[in-house]
Specification:
Elements (H helix, E strand, L loop, with lengths): L5 E2 L1 E2 L16 E8 L2 E7 L4 E4 L13 E4 L11 E9 L2 E8 L5 E5 L13 E7 L8 E2 L2 E2 L3 E3 L2
Antiparallel strand pairs: 1-6, 2-10, 3-4, 4-7, 5-6, 7-8, 8-13, 9-10, 11-12
């Protein structure tokens, strides 16, 4: 499958109607280890990765797209660090931090509060990580940049 560059859109996981639909599955592939931090590319297909725009630092709110995976991910800004947060609702939970933009996490655009971030058709962005360590709750709600990797 060849994908044109474009935004990554959030859809709730639902394999009940089409269990062979793999469009919601991404592959997390190790790239390198830097000072004890294992870094990854997030592949959408064999040749396309989740991509932060341009090279280097980007502002919070930048839209994440799919683009041809870089032959040298270390030279691009498309490496990610999986920061373990803990077990939430019975699942190991991670914040997915952009390596070049350390303060930015992979995020569903908009603010999530009490499961409000479950709506369809929201673009994925990078946004300022809310919380640290076990304290990811902000103002009684959870922003939608915590991920279950299954």
């Amino acid at each position: 499958m060849i994908l044109p560059p474009g935004p990554v859109i959030h859809e709730p996981c639902d394999w009940s109607t089409n269990p062979s639909d793999l469009s919601q599955l991404f592959q997390v592939v190790p790239t390198r280890n830097v000072n004890g931090y294992q870094l990854y590319e997030i592949k959408v297909t064999d040749s396309h990765c989740i991509d932060v725009p341009y090279y280097g630092a980007v502002p919070a709110g930048s839209v994440v797209t799919t683009y041809t995976c870089s032959a040298n991910p270390a030279a691009d800004n498309d490496e990610w660090y999986l920061q373990y947060v803990g077990v939430l609702n019975g699942y190991e939970t991670y914040a997915i931090r952009n390596w070049v933009n350390w303060s930015l996490c992979l995020d569903v655009s908009g603010w999530a509060y009490n499961n409000s971030g479950l709506a369809s058709n929201a673009k994925l962005t990078v946004y300022t990580c809310q919380g640290s360590g076990p304290n990811w709750s902000v103002n009684g709600g959870w922003d939608d940049h915590l991920w279950w990797l299954m």
